[in-house]
Design brief:
The chain is of the alpha+beta class. It contains 6 helices and 4 strands. Helix 1 packs antiparallel against helix 2.
Length: 205
């Protein structure tokens, strides 16, 4: 049971956000579950954050985001769960709306009750460019670390292939590639073993 007080998500900063099923239970039950989570993510999170990387696994997920400042947020696109529009945009509450909406959908579809996610959700402030690079590598390689696949490009529920694709996306693809300078460097970096000692405590078993 978590007892710490989580840090507030500050606008204009970068965060690694991750969470898993309550007591380690699964949070994705079928293909449609993954798709629905991504649809809700776009609805609640895309208006208030830029997404650099994401990965969904059976019992947990990871995202790397930049929280937009007020001037960058299109209020007309904002989705929230209260009747009255909020006076200020609270990024933490937006993630709460996402988790609540997804939990309600899953509970209804699979005739279950109770919490689906652990609370509070985990968030780590990203302070350096090297840490940022390692996080993108770590998030995309998560399915390999957990032995869901042997190759990251074979796993369908991450942003790795989205970075390489030309299809329209909410992912800030060009900014991701710029971090690695070129698309070839991005690929090469992901297939070389990187030192992830800084983020080893983030591995969710």
């Amino acid at each position: 049971m978590k007892s710490y007080k989580p840090i507030a998500l500050e606008k204009g900063k970068y965060y690694h956000i991750y969470n898993r099923g309550n007591n380690g239970i699964d949070i994705f039950f079928d293909y449609e579950s993954y798709y629905h989570f991504l649809r809700l993510y776009d609805k609640y999170i895309s208006p208030i954050a830029e997404t650099f990387a994401w990965c969904l696994l059976k019992n947990h997920f990871h995202v790397l985001v930049y929280i937009k400042i007020d001037e960058e947020i299109d209020i007309s696109m904002l989705e929230y769960s209260t009747v009255e529009s909020p006076k200020t945009v609270d990024p933490s509450k937006q993630f709460g709306h996402l988790f609540n909406a997804y939990t309600q959908a899953i509970n209804k579809k699979f005739n279950r009750t109770g919490s689906l996610f652990e609370k509070p959700f985990e968030r780590k402030l990203v302070k350096s460019e090297k840490y940022f690079q390692n996080l993108i590598y770590y998030i995309h390689n998560n399915p390999v670390f957990h032995r869901f696949t042997d190759k990251i490009n074979d796993y369908p529920w991450s942003s790795y292939e989205t970075v390489l694709s030309e299809k329209p996306t909410r992912l800030v693809r060009e900014k991701v590639i710029k971090i690695f300078e070129t698309k070839d460097n991005f690929i090469q970096y992901h297939f070389q073993k990187q030192n992830c000692n800084e983020i080893i405590n983030l591995i969710i078993e």
